[in-house]
Specification:
The chain is an alpha/beta fold. Helix 13 links the parallel strand 16 and strand 17. The radius of gyration is 23 Å and the shape is elongated. The chain starts with 13 loop residues before the first strand and ends with a helix. Helix 8 runs parallel beside helix 10. The chain is about 35% helix and about 15% strand. The strands form four sheets. It has a six-stranded parallel β-sheet, with helices on both faces. The chain binds adenosine monophosphate (AMP). The site of adenosine monophosphate has 17 residues, from strand 14 and helix 13.
């Protein structure tokens, strides 16, 4: 059961909100991508409008359980205030007397930010006493930190046990979970997953989990070559995991017996070295000469993928279909983004999730042309693998 903050009135409550303010910063502590901060504004507004107060908890970077000034929230405090368009209070010791004192004096409408929770060993250890101390600061708990939901840490999971009747998902968490459900459980058919990236080994759990949930599976990127070689093709010097050939064959057989259509690239842009300036040639995917490696999908593949995507009503995209970091081999991934954008315009639902494809979508202006871009890399990948996230089970159990 979803426990949404939308169904609750926080008037007079002090609400502990776990957010993911683990934002990237440059060497001068300028926030370079504020998406994760912006994403929790609806949740904060709801609580404050109800007449509640907010105690924000987050981690920043990897200080590994001890105080490290370079990971202090003081470095980005005023930037966070500007992004939220709200003033905040701050407490340096997240679980000391000052935190108890400041939170007890917190008035409706006020926001108190606790210092980086990863300054304390108890956070990542999921220590119950640390969680209890945090819990004592508020009277409700809201988890809106999707980016950390795959961690069983004190503030993301353990703390929830102290709020058996007042623990909730924030709006961002709810949106992320609904997006995954929409694709994997209740997506309008045909449902198509596009998986790319370098290796079969890192994506195999996802493949196994989604095979029973999709109608079409498009496989691109480096991992396609393990499948092509398993079917007997010559992939030249392309990346191949030779110890995964049997696994690749069994995936293909499995898909066949359950009626899932698998689409591999038909052709590739082959290069004579792993270099943006390499000599290139467009060749059939199963006839790549020795000394050459496939670094992007070719024209016929792009057209095939486009047709499958345009015929789909629900689309999941994870991973680039070429070495998109080099301009010479980014065109296939770009074409894929365009296909998904067009399908979305035609009414399909599209979710982009997990690491590189999210970065690609943002860098190339596709962010507003797809239905939803996930804010959580690892959490999204584990969700696609079919794992129930500790941050989620702590709320619903
Ligand atoms: P992943 O982190 O598994 O999603 O993989 C992303 C990486 O896969 C990116 O850095 C791409 O450059 C890489 N990649 C995509 N296609 C290929 C390819 N054909 N050969 C080698 N690497 C690739």
């Amino acid at each position: 059961m979803m426990k949404s903050i939308g169904e609750y009135n926080f008037s007079g409550k002090k609400v502990l909100v776990r957010v993911d303010f683990n934002v990237p910063v440059d060497k001068d502590f300028n926030i370079t991508d504020s998406t994760r901060i912006e994403a929790v504004i609806p949740t904060l507004n709801k609580i404050l409008r109800d007449g509640g107060s907010v105690i924000l908890m987050s981690h920043l970077g990897r200080p590994k359980g001890s105080v490290d000034p370079s990971f202090s929230f003081t470095n980005i405090f005023s930037q966070i205030e500007n992004i939220l368009e709200k003033k905040m209070l701050f407490v340096r010791d997240a679980v000391g007397n000052a935190a108890v004192d400041q939170s007890s004096r917190l008035k409706p409408g006020e926001i108190l930010l606790l210092e980086n929770l990863r300054f304390y060993k108890g956070e990542e250890e999921g220590n119950v006493d640390f969680a209890r101390k945090l819990a004592s600061l508020g009277d409700s708990y809201v988890n809106d930190a999707f980016g950390t939901a795959h961690r069983a840490h004190a503030s993301t999971s353990v703390i929830a046990r102290f709020f058996p009747n007042s623990k909730f998902f924030g709006f961002l968490m709810e949106k992320e979970l609904k997006a995954i459900d929409k694709v994997l459980l209740s997506g309008e058919k045909p449902v198509t997953a596009v998986l790319g990236g370098s290796k079969v080994s890192t994506k195999i759990t996802i493949i196994k989990n989604i095979l029973s949930k999709v109608d079409n599976l498009i496989i691109g990127g480096g991992m396609a070559f393990t499948f092509v070689k398993a079917k007997g093709g010559n992939v030249g010097d392309s990346v191949v995991e030779n110890d995964k050939l049997d696994l690749a064959l069994s995936v293909l057989n499995n898909a066949k017996s359950t009626g899932v259509k698998v689409f591999l690239p038909l052709d590739v842009i082959a290069a004579d070295s792993f270099d943006n300036k390499a000599n290139t040639e467009e060749v059939a995917v199963d006839k790549i000469p020795l000394g050459w490696q496939g670094l992007d999908v070719g024209m016929r593949s792009r057209q095939l993928f486009d047709k499958v995507i345009m015929d789909s009503k629900t689309i999941l995209w994870n991973g680039p279909v070429g070495v998109f970091e080099m301009s010479a081999f980014s065109k296939g991934t770009f074409a894929l983004g365009e296909s998904i954008a067009r399908a979305t315009e035609n009414g399909a639902y599209s979710l982009v999730g997990g690491g590189d494809s999210v970065a690609f979508v943002k860098q190339n202006g596709f962010e507003n042309k797809v239905s939803y871009v996930s804010t959580g890399g690892g959490a999204m990948l584990e969700s696609l693998e079919g794992i129930e996230l500790p941050g989620v089970s702590a709320i619903i159990r």
